[in-house]
Amino acid sequence: MTIPFLSLADAITSEQIIKKSRFLAQATPISSEQAANDFLESVSIEHKSANHHPFAYVLGDNDEITRQSDAGEPAGTSGSPILNVITQNHLHNVLIVVTRYFGGIKLGSGGLIRAYGTSATQVVNTGQLVVRQALTRFSITLPYALAEPLTHWLTDRVVTVEQTDYGAAVTFTVLVTTDDASFITDLTSKTSGQAQLEKIADVFDMIPYER
């Protein structure tokens, strides 16, 4: 079974209190290390009075870049459990930072591992996941007589109709799932071979993913 390429739709926040310590988890999709660093800097500025800002992130189509930091917590108690949550949920291009406001009660190594792990899990479960879908962009040119009756079929058949241009003929720009093997055959049948089909590019899109 192929594991889907999952990420987060938007930045999200969740919070929990454990033995008087406040754990504020923030997760966000990222597109570069600069974006990750900018987000971490904004968190440290906004919560400058907090004790720690452990984080982890993965970046790249094959997670070529992986970073984690305990941010002053005992080694292995915070960055690693946060990273484990990212990888176990098969997330990509995602950063999670958990800000801790110390409440005066020490949690011990095991307690910290659980606290940071559950904080990261909670914030991931709060957000909307998206899955990367491989799409192909086509232009379809048709005579006017065929364009109108085909419009409704196209709307239902493709992922999206991006653009419709009216000139000497009607040209639709559409996105179709790349693995849709029957699209060209169906289009040819619907138009009795009168459609002029041109592949423009292969692209990716992120669409909502149901857990």
What does this structure look like?
By secondary structure, the protein is of the alpha+beta class. It has two domains: 122 residues, Impact, N-terminal domain (Ribosomal Protein S5, domain 2, 2-Layer Sandwich); 75 residues, Alpha-Beta Plaits (2-Layer Sandwich), CATH 3.30.70. The protein contains five helices and ten strands; from the N terminus they run βββαββαβαβαββαβ. Strands 1, 7, 8, 9 and 10 form a five-stranded antiparallel β-sheet that branches. A hairpin with a 2-residue loop joins strand 2 and strand 3. Helix 2 runs parallel beside helix 3. It is elongated and about 75 Å long. The model has no long low-confidence stretch (mean pLDDT 96). It comes from Furfurilactobacillus siliginis. This is IMPACT family member yvyE. InterPro entries: EFG_III/V (IPR035647), Impact (IPR023582), Impact_N (IPR001498), Impact_N_sf (IPR036956), Impact_YigZ-like (IPR015796), Ribosomal_Su5_D2-typ_SF (IPR020568), UPF0029_Impact_C (IPR015269), UPF0029_Impact_CS (IPR020569). Belongs to the IMPACT family. Pfam families: DUF1949, Impact_N.
